[in-house]
Specification:
Elements lengths: L2 E4 L13 E4 L1 E2 L5 E2 L48 H28 L6
Parallel strand pairs: 1-2
Antiparallel strand pairs: 3-4
């Protein structure tokens, strides 16, 4: 397991004898960027992700409790009963709501976009 720590660009070094390595951040032009703070450095701002550009995204806050029903029984015969059919419809509706909430959360977080 590796541990990483932020280091000032003037002090970044790799010590192969330890499991701790300094990380050097660079901007889009591969110029070193200080992210450790201080009066002379400008904090790094992670750019937003775009369809054709890497960047940061927000955490999607999707409220879905429990788990989807994964135990709908197979029909006892070739003709399902109303109860068997209703159980399948309920499981499908639950799954559809969960998928819609997940997609909405991903869109709100900027992870995906809809056309």
């Amino acid at each position: 397991m590796k541990q990483y720590r932020l280091a000032d660009t003037s002090k970044a070094k790799v010590d192969a004898s330890t499991y701790i390595e300094d990380v050097l951040f660079v901007d889009g032009n591969d110029n070193p960027v200080n992210v450790t703070g201080g009066s002379t450095s400008t904090p790094y701002v992670l750019p937003a992700a775009a369809e054709n550009a890497l960047g940061g995204v927000k955490l999607a806050n999707v409220t879905i409790s429990g788990t989807a029903n994964a135990s709908v029984a197979a029909a006892a015969s070739t003709t399902p009963t109303k109860a068997e059919y209703d159980a399948l419809v309920a499981a499908y509706d639950d799954l559809a709501q969960r998928v819609n909430a997940l997609v909405a959360g991903l869109v709100a977080a900027g992870v995906v976009k809809t056309s």
